[in-house]
Amino acid sequence: MLSPTDQIGVYAEQYRLRLPEAVIYELRGLEALLGDALPPLVAQYLQHYPSQTWTLDRVADQFEEFLASIHAPVEQTDMARLDIAVSHAFTAPDARTFDASTLQAETQLVLQPPVVLLELSTSVFRTRSAALSGLDLPEMEFADFRVVLFRPERKIRHLVLADAAYKLLNAFKTPTSLADGLQTLSQDAFTANALAANLGDWMRTFAKSRILGPPA
Q1: What phi, psi does 79 have (nearest 5°)?
Q2: Whether residue 103 sits in one domain with residue 179
Q3: Based on the domain organization, do 158 and 207 belong to the same domain?
Q4: Which pLDDT score, from 0 to 100, does residue 1 have?
Q5: Whole domain around residue 49: which residue ranges?
Q6: 66 and 117 assigned to the same domain
């Protein structure tokens, strides 16, 4: 029978051996993008960013930072950011709902726990979706994308947002009344005009998708 010290040593070795696999599991979009080029990068990452916890959760959280430090192409850093955001959204507490038809100026709203806002420079969200669906990868587009991740059920989904809709969601990062949230955006004429034309539709979408909801 192994001594307690030997048992700890066995666990530590098993943990060390499982780390690369755990990192790659968290980076499924990047794996689709890089293929066999990913494992050597993971080995480098673990040398420079050794895990600080005893679990395998969040072991890839600094991968975007690592890629930036080695001047990786923007589509790689974008994909790492997206992969990590998906992981966080998936394990977050469930979202709460509200009825958009009952909204009042004083209604308190906040981004729900599984929601992540992303500003991306490439269309990696399309690449990741295609890869996980077993489809051919689309051509990468290089442009400014405003993306929201959300989890209405147990599957992560995304929407590409107009700039004004993205600014609207940013106004509710902390619990804020509808009136106060809109007030923060009223100084920008372009955003104000877009809100006037689309606010009802956007709020119905955010309610149905459980992107916005009441505070806990």
Answers
A1: -65, -40
A2: yes
A3: yes
A4: 65
A5: 1-72
A6: no
Q: List b or e across 20-59, with b for residues whose CB sees 16 or more CB atoms inside 10 angstroms.
A: bebbbebbbbbbbbbeeebeebbeebbeebebeeeebebb
In 3D, which of 108, 97, 83, 101 has the Cα closest to residue 32? 83
Indicate whether 82 belongs to any domain: no
The residue whose two tokens read 């877009």 is 194
Are 16 and 104 within one domain?
no
Residue pLDDT, tens place only, 65-110: 999 999 999 999 999 999 999 999 999 999 999 999 999 999 999 9
The separation between CA 2 and the C-alpha centre of its own chain, rounded to angstroms, equals 43
